Amino acid sequence: MKKKIYVVTGSRADYGLLKILLNKFRNDKKVDLKILVTGMHLLPDFGSTFKEIIKDGFKINKNKLNDFKSFLDTEFIKKRKNKKGNQNTKPGIPTL
How do the domains of the chain map onto residue ranges? Predict the structure, then answer.
């Protein structure tokens, strides 16, 4: 019986770190690898980087997590765009 392993990635940065591990799991016959993509991968402003995962030969599992564009990430990005130039916003601290 194969072990199911779910890997969640939300940005190109964490995908780059996970890629070696994903390749190892993909080649393991005892593992049923499930990749869940969310966050910035799904946003056109950040290059729709889910396409990079597909190009690398990985299958992205479709589910509600993938279809839901991570409300908090999307709202955070919208707020950051609206506050550009605001001197009161500290870098790295989300203001929701």
Answer: 3-71
